[in-house]
Each structure stands twice: as C-alpha cells, then as structure tokens.
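quick one, 181 residues, struct below
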Amino acid sequence: MRFICTLLILLAFTNAAPAQNDLLLLRKHNKTVRQFYPGISIQFFTENMQLVNGFITRISHDSLFMNQYDTRTMYTGWGSAVVDTISTYHIAWSYKDIVGFPAKQKFTSATIPSILMIGSAGYAGLNIVNAGLLNQSLTGTENLGKLGIAAGVFGVGYLLKKSKKDYLPIGKKYKLVYLRV
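---
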C-alpha cells in the first residue's frame, strides 16, 4: 500500500514540473556564443533598433515571454535617492523580430577612437590658440602641417568609430536558433 501511494505521488510531481525548457541559441558560424533560457535576463534590438531588456519567463512556440521592469530614481524625504520599480510589463516577442544583440565592448575598441578624436581636436585647438597668441600665421607651412596631421588623426579615429558596430546583427555571421526541447 505504501509503495502504491509513493508511486502515485511521484507520478503527480513529475507531470506537474517539466524538467526542460525551450532554448534560444545565438550562434556564430555554427558555434554557440550565448544561450537564452527562462530565468535569465536578455537584451536585444528590434527591427526599429529599439533596445528591449527584461527577464525571460518562458520560451515556447517560437515566442519569447518576458517581464520588463520600469525602474526609476525616487527621492526620499531626506534628500537621498533610491531606485524603485514603478511597474512591471509582461510582453511576448517572436524570436524572428530580433535583429541584433548588444556587443560586449572591450576597453580598447571603445576608447581608442575616442582618444584619437579628442586628442587631435585638442592639439588643433591648442595650435590655433598658440598661433593667435604668438602672432603667427595660421596658413604658414609649419602650422598647416600640424593642423593637417591633427585632421588626419581625427579622421582615423572617426573611421575607426564608425566601422565598429556596437551590436551583433542577426544575418550572415550570427544566427538565432530556436531549439525546441
């Protein structure tokens, strides 16, 4: 009798709690880069380049169900600030509406173009101010060479910044695969 009761209880619990969930895999040339499953946070871009972030609650039938939290800074009576959740939104997205994921920026790829642009602009500005203070000609060969170098370095920084995408686009290189378990 005990054996039958124990068996019925175990069968009831196994039917009520599924062991596996569906997955979304971000793959780069058939190698998995990221896995998305219920219980983790996700950030992605939609077709109009809107950044959506939230926590995945369920993945089923090619749809991604998630909770979005609207958090804002609230001020207390003592003048300090506290981050508080204003509301929660339950939304669903088709995984086919996802066009990209934010890329994890490395320090060098994010800052070197900016350093080049700021440094060259500062050098050119300093050269212009010094030419005015020392009564030198801006169109002289020495000044034009320095300003040309500054403009070239600024251009290199600008091109580096524009050539680097800040997101991983879904397409040729990256693919989003729905894995039904």
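The mean pLDDT is 83.
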